Task: structure prediction
Amino acid sequence: MHRSLLLVTLLCILPSTLSQPYDKPCTTHRIIAGVYSDGPVPLSPSPLTHFDAPMIPYYNATAGEDWSFDAVSSSSSSGLSLVLSRGTVGSKLAAQRMLISMTWPNRTRYMESVFADESTITQCAHTTTGTWLNHTTGANWTFAVSNDYARGAIIIASPTINGTYSITARTPPLYPDGTTYPSRNATTLFAPQLYWTENVPVGDVKAEFEVKGTSFVLHGMGGREHNWNAQPWGTISKRWDQIRAEVGLWTLMGWTYESRVVENTTCLSLIVMENGSVVARYTENQGERADGTYGSIALSNTGSVHLASAPGNKEPLPESRHSGYVVVLKEPRTGKEWRFEIEFTQTVYWFTASEIARIGQFVGTASGGLLGGTQFRGLTSGSLQELSN
Result:
């Protein structure tokens, strides 16, 4: 089943990329679980490297990278998160991890974290594919994406989960500062020791999986991104709040992040798009810049849903301290100001991230727009990490 699904998915992707050259040779980057080098490893800083390419040529005991995908249903009542990782995860050095989390409308949840023996990234003229294989169980997770970022999919074939996730982009690939790929003057470095690209900030998503005999179907909104780090997440980060949203004419990408590497360092990326084009962006710390541009992602407690452990958990974690956000972006050059309210509707996952923090994935509703203009309602998905104390 896996081979036929992959072929069908690739055939769907290829028509959007026929304008690309045919003479580009394929390149393959294969990593074996548990194989790593002592000392530092290079992390790609180039803004012109394709966003889906491997950014770490080989691994040491701390470095890692993630290709992440998420989605919220059109009713905001179910959600999904998938992550394919290379590098150290928890106590596993130079691991190859596959992680999926999902929540159904009845608040049932499922999470599976499994490890592969190897992963291979293959880049060709039209597509990039990544395959994570476990030779013992036969688990095979493959992502296939068009090199123009327009289409992508994950195909899972395993003893417990089988199915596909597909995404069609509605927005261009972005750097942390809101610049559209490709740009020689942009940077992929978002925070100390943390690189980030938003391969698809917002797209249309369809997901259909069979999970231990139970069907999971989602049609809605989502996105995908790529991160690569010199050290594990728990080592470099204190807290963060990351959101993507589609609200009427507007699409939104935002991330506020507090570093654990450099004290008193908080980074912010906030990007507003109209019909797929960037119309306003803000970076640096929260607050007002010298030119009068202002951006903030403020915590809110007006909603009724907080991130929480799964129902029936014998040792539940404390709930998240907030239930959503208020997002503001002012652009003095045009005199425009956008305001959006985000409210959680479902927890996709919620667990301990490190000795100082908890991490969660959410889906929810979003409302707002341009002040003085039509106000809309829409969807949101995202993640957060909050300090335990």
Observations:
- Residues 13-22 have pLDDT under 50 and may be disordered.
- Residues 2-387 form a domain with the AttH-like fold fold (CATH 2.40.370.10).
- The CA atoms of residues 302 and 323 lie 7 Å apart.
